[in-house]
């Protein structure tokens, strides 16, 4: 990449025209970004240093109190623990399975049949979370759910999918992997098909087998897309909310144990207990967790790709 | 991939920029609230005088649309019917109705009231809305309407529940408590001649009514407890049973002192929690089966305590059960709640809104509430004998034994928080029943830890003792 | 082509059979929702449950359509998703292209700024954003609903990555030599090269708006403005009639499945285009 200064010296007029072009293109996009993302995020950070009750105009500066109090809060710690397990399990499972599927569907099984199979795996992505979670809630039902009935055929006893603390987490992971898998798969397939054929053909001529081709050609060239998929899955997993909310929400407290996750806890503190500043501090913690993880992932994958 | 090296720097800059911009525009965050407060008294006063002087035509002649907001969707048809009757009197007034589940509705109010986008008539308990009243977001009840909210028309508990700082702030619409629903066929089958009338009898019956299958799984609970679910519901159901033993979740240390303390960690609270976990061990109820009204309608439970709406719900969803079940008042006490009507300060046609609210308190409209929605009207001066004869399912609500104590939600803004947190602990304890059943010491220790948390929340809210 | 032995072919068919079995498992929950929506209430409680209804019925659909203005909700969702998708495709493609192919002062900084906002969960800044939108009096309006969905941080990230891999510099230079303007290159040449990525992003953007839940819940108070997801959740939260809820859920799902069938062609076209590019 040539440095901007060198470019200015080399072709001043063209560069200036180009910069004007860049400015005209980016300015409206950046204005939207600043207004819709950056200012509100900044305000959330400001809020986290206040005792702030959403409807009360009086705000009281409390420094880092919200942050230190959170570390002592059992609900926050439980939410952090649950969310982390959930995010790791969901990311690992959905990306690994998507990679396998994409590898098979991008090359080995193509054409009409491959397309039809892709469609099957992609379908869950399309249906929105609320109805799907309602459907899964019935599938997970202890006594008349079809999952336990199906397990019964294999001699496996009924599992308390929704009421046992551990199983409830497992159930949310199953539901989320099911929902996320198709999206990861389609992105990876697009990425794999964008890898020019010539590389594989050359490798085949050199006598590389399918695994070797995958390991030494597909994976390295796919690294940026794979990185994207991992980052997106991690971020969305840390923000899990709707499925947890719907699984445990019922006017009648039906079987459905609440798996306390960070966003749920933020919601509860903010909108139920009116502790907006506290909720904002919790959101900032969530933000920090996600950033640290993203940086680690970038580092790790960049290292392995080079 | 060079840019990723700079990620941290970039993030820092983002935060800095965001902070700077955020800090410069705090007005955006407070604008709605501050805009609300000064307008409160003047606008409320204006509406009061308007409706006092022009009762006959509070809605004027210009086209007006009133938006009615509630947290109970089964009431929609009541508002709709009342709206049609009102439109017949004032053809220029039309109605739209918005409702959602209670928790969603409360969240909606917390954003809609400060942003002046709530409806023209808002229905929720005065207790919940107290903090909005403090901010001047809800208008005071006009004097002429206030004059009709008297002890002749409403029970003392209803009046108390509609008040805030010793003043009636909302207009009562419907009130509720809980009663014990029981399945007559199941009772007969178990050789029980009538519904239980004491707490000991309830537990004894529950034991006889529960059923398990060959593998030992509970297929029918003797009594359906609230064992899970989000929000404060789990603790509220515990509270209703605790009331039967003469205790509250939190109690004012001496009347009028403003100091409160946890009241569930005494011997009776421990005894009740013991009954819960022992019942789970003894397979009288289980986390793995249906609960509540759904369980009752699908014959997965023999008894459960709930509000009157279940009667209407059974009629729609389980018509085969009608006539085969009954309801009976809980033995010693009940938890009362009154849904009250408010007009937001920002509502564009306050006089008309109040006029409609007044309309809803009239006998004819009050009487549509039980038939359409299954809830009971707040007014006590209405004759419901015929209604009860036609709908015997309401017996437990309309025939309360003399001397039954009605408790109300304490007027504490932090009550929901402590109740919700207690609910979380209870859910954990129920899940851990195997380790707690038959262990009173462990249970007492748990209750004491929870009570510490409750007292801390009270102290944080300025009500600690 | 390389291996054409019997073992290879058998292996290939085993893989296909496993893929199909997995695929059927994937759509089972959707099938189950449809199946349960077509049975009368008592059949929902059968132990063990039956795969298909014993008595088929459309009653639940009739009930769902009278219980809520489902078709209006669908129309609202469609408008929302289409507007959002168009804006996101436009902003992401142009910004992604500029970030990938132009060196200018602040390129890295601005890109990282965008990338950083991709990491910030919506729930974090939702409340301040709500207050901002309230300050410009757009609460409870369609425009207010659309606003946060006009840009997508990871859309820009995704398009930038794809521009780097799929748009060769030589081609851009050749176009410039041919006298094509920068605007022409960006708006006509580049999108053609990025077709598969654009198709993938279009699906993503569409789904994102279509399934949006918390923001509509926060900003809309008028049922006549509700998108499907919100309308459905209000319906589901307030009823205990599972047949009705399932039928409503199926109505909500149907258009997305159809839309996907249409969009899939575009993906296939895009894939063919990249094939030609190599």
Tell me what you see in this structure:
The complex is a heterotrimer of chains A (about 300), B (about 475) and C (about 280). With about 300 residues, chain A is mainly α. Chain A has helices at about 5-10, 10-45, 65-70, 75-110, 110-125, 130-140, 145-155, 165-195, 195-205, 210-240, 240-250, 260-270, 275-305; strands spanning about 50, 60. Chain A has a two-stranded antiparallel ribbon. The longest helix of chain A is centred in the N-terminal third of the chain and has 36 residues, at about 10-45. Chain A starts with a helix and ends with a helix. Chain B contains 20 helices and 16 strands. In chain B, strands 1, 2, 3, 6, 14, 15 and 16 form a seven-stranded mixed β-sheet that branches. In chain B, a hairpin with a 7-residue loop joins β10 and β11. The N and C termini of chain B lie far apart (about 60 Å). Chain C is mostly helical and about 280 residues long. Chain C is built from 13 helices and no strands. In chain C, α10 runs antiparallel to α13 (about 240-275). Classes of the chains: A mainly alpha (about 300), B alpha+beta (about 475), C mainly alpha (about 280).
Record keyword descriptors for this entry:
heterotrimer, A: 306 residues, mainly alpha, two-stranded antiparallel sheet, 2 strands, B: 465 residues, alpha+beta, seven-stranded mixed sheet, three-stranded antiparallel sheet, globular, disordered N terminus
Question: Can you lay out the helices and strands and say which pair or pack?
Answer:
The complex is a heterotrimer of chains A (306), B (465) and C (278).
Chain A: H1 4-10, H2 12-47, E1 50-51, E2 60-61, H3 65-71, H4 74-108, H5 111-126, H6 129-139, H7 146-153, H8 165-193, H9 197-205, H10 210-238, H11 242-248, H12 262-272, H13 276-305
Antiparallel strand pairs in A: 1-2
Helix pairs in contact in A: 1-2, 4-8, 4-10, 4-12, 5-8, 6-11, 8-10, 9-10, 10-13, 12-13
Chain B: H1 7-24, H2 27-53, E1 64-70, H3 76-89, E2 93-99, H4 102-112, E3 121-124, H5 126-134, H6 143-146, H7 156-161, E4 163-164, E5 167-168, E6 171-176, E7 179-183, H8 184-189, H9 199-209, E8 211-212, E9 218-220, H10 233-244, E10 250-252, E11 260-262, H11 267-281, H12 292-297, E12 303-306, H13 309-317, E13 325-329, E14 333-342, H14 350-360, H15 363-373, E15 376-377, H16 385-390, H17 395-398, E16 405-408, H18 415-431, H19 433-436, H20 440-460
Parallel strand pairs in B: 1-2, 1-3, 14-16
Antiparallel strand pairs in B: 3-14, 4-5, 6-14, 6-15, 7-12, 7-13, 8-9, 10-11
Chain C: H1 6-37, H2 59-67, H3 70-101, H4 107-119, H5 122-135, H6 142-146, H7 153-166, H8 169-177, H9 182-193, H10 195-210, H11 214-219, H12 228-238, H13 242-277
Helix pairs in contact in C: 1-13, 2-13, 3-7, 3-10, 3-12, 4-7, 7-10, 10-13, 12-13
């Amino acid at each position: 990449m040539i440095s901007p200064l060198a470019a200015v010296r080399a072709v001043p007029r063209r560069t200036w025209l180009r910069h004007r072009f860049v400015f005209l293109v980016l300015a409206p996009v950046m204005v939207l970004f600043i207004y819709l993302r950056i200012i509100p995020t900044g305000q959330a950070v400001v809020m986290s240093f206040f005792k702030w009750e959403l409807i009360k105009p009086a705000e009281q500066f409390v420094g880092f109190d919200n942050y230190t109090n959170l570390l002592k809060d059992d609900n926050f710690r439980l939410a952090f623990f649950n969310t982390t397990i959930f995010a790791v399990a969901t990311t690992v499972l959905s990306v690994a399975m998507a990679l396998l599927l994409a590898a098979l569907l991008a090359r080995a099984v193509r054409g009409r049949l491959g397309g039809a199979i892709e469609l099957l795996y992609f379908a869950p992505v399309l249906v929105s979370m609320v109805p799907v979670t309602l459907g899964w809630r019935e599938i997970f039902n202890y006594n008349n759910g079809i999952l336990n009935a199906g397990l019964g055929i294999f001699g496996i006893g009924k599992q308390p999918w929704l009421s046992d603390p551990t199983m409830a987490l497992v159930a949310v992971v199953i539901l989320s992997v099911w929902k996320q898998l198709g999206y990861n798969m389609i992105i990876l397939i697009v990425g794999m098909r964008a890898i020019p054929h010539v590389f594989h053909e050359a490798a085949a001529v050199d006598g590389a087998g399918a695994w070797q081709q995958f390991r030494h050609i597909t994976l390295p060239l796919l690294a940026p897309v794979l990185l994207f998929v991992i980052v997106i899955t991690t971020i969305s997993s840390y923000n899990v909310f709707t499925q947890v909310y719907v699984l445990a929400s019922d006017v009648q407290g039906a079987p459905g144990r609440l798996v306390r996750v960070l966003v749920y806890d933020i919601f509860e503190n903010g909108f139920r207990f009116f502790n907006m500043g506290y909720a904002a501090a919790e959101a900032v913690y969530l933000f920090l967790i996600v950033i640290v993880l993203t940086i680690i992932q970038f580092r790790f994958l960049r290292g392995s790709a080079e | 991939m060079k840019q990723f090296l700079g990620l941290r720097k970039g993030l820092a800059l983002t935060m800095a920029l965001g902070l700077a911009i955020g800090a410069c525009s705090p007005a955006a965050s407070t604008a709605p609230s501050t805009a609300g407060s000064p307008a409160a008294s003047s606008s409320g006063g204006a509406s009061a005088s308007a409706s006092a002087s022009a009762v006959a035509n509070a809605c004027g002649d210009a086209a007006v649309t009133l938006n009615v907001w509630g947290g109970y969707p089964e009431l929609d048809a009541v508002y709709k019917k009342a709206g049609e009757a009102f439109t017949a009197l004032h053809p220029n007034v039309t109605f739209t109705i918005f409702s959602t589940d209670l928790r969603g509705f409360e969240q909606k109010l917390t954003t809609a009231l400060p942003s002046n986008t709530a409806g023209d008539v808002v229905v929720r308990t005065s207790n919940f809305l107290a903090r909005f009243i403090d901010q001047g977001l809800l208008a005071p009840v006009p004097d002429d309407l206030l004059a009709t909210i008297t002890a002749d028309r409403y029970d003392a508990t209803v009046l108390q529940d509609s008040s805030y700082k010793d003043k009636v702030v909302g207009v009562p619409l419907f009130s509720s408590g809980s009663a014990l629903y029981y399945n007559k066929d199941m009772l007969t089958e178990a050789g029980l001649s009538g519904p239980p009338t004491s707490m000991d009898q309830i537990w004894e019956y529950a034991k006889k009514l529960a059923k398990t299958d060959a593998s030992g799984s509970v297929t029918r609970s003797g009594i359906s407890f609230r064992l899970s679910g989000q929000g404060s519901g789990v603790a509220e159901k515990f509270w209703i049973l605790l009331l039967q033993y003469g205790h509250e979740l939190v109690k004012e240390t001496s009347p009028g002192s403003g100091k409160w303390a946890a009241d569930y960690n005494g011997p009776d609270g421990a005894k009740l929690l013991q009954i819960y976990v022992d019942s789970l061990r003894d397979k009288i109820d289980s986390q793995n089966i249906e609960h509540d009204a759904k369980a009752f309608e699908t014959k997965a439970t023999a008894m459960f305590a709930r509000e009157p709406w279940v009667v209407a719900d059974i009629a729609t969803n389980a018509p085969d059960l009608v006539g085969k079940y009954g309801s009976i008042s809980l033995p010693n006490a009940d938890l009362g709640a009154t849904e009250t009507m408010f007009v937001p300060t920002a509502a564009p046609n306050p006089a008309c809104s109040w006029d409609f609210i007044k309309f809803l308190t009239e006998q004819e409209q009050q009487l549509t509430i039980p038939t359409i929605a299954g809830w009971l009207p707040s007014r006590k001066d209405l004759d419901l004998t015929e209604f009860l004869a036609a709908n015997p399912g309401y017996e437990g609500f309309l025939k309360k034994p003399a001397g039954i104590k009605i408790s109300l939600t304490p007027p504490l803004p932090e009550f929901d928080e402590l109740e919700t947190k207690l609910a979380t602990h209870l859910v954990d304890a129920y899940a851990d029943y195997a380790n707690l059943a038959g262990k009173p010491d462990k249970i007492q220790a748990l209750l004491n830890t929870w009570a510490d948390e409750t007292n801390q929340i009270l102290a944080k809210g300025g009500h600690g003792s | 082509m390389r291996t054409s032995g019997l073992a290879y072919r058998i292996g290939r068919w085993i893989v296909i059979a496993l893929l199909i079995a997995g695929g059927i498992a994937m759509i089972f929950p959707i099938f189950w929702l449809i199946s349960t929506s077509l049975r009368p209430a008592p059949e929902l409680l059968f132990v063990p449950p039956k795969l298909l209804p014993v008595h088929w019925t459309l009653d639940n659909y009739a009930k769902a359509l009278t219980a809520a203005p489902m078709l209006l909700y669908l129309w609202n969702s469609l408008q929302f998703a289409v507007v959002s998708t168009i804006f996101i495709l436009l902003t992401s493609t142009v910004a992604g292209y500029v970030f990938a192919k132009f060196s200018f002062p602040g390129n890295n900084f601005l890109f990282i700024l965008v990338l950083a906002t991709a990491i910030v969960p919506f729930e974090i800044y939702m409340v301040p954003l709500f207050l901002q939108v309230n300050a410009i009096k757009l609460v409870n309006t369609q425009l207010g609903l659309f606003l946060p969905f006009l840009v997508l941080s990871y859309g820009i990230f995704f398009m930038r990555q794809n521009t780097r891999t799929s748009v060769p510099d030589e081609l851009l230079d050749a176009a410039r030599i041919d006298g094509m303007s920068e605007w022409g290159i960006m708006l006509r040449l580049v999108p053609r090269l990025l077709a598969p990525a654009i198709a993938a992003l279009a699906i993503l953007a569409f789904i994102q708006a279509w399934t949006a839940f918390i923001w509509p819940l926060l900003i809309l108070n008028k049922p006549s403005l509700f998108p499907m997801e919100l309308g459905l959740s209000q319906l589901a939260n307030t009823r205990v009639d599972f047949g009705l809820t399932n039928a409503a859920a199926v109505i909500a799902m149907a258009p997305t499945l159809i839309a996907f069938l249409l969009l899939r062609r575009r993906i296939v076209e895009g894939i063919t285009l990249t094939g030609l590019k190599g």
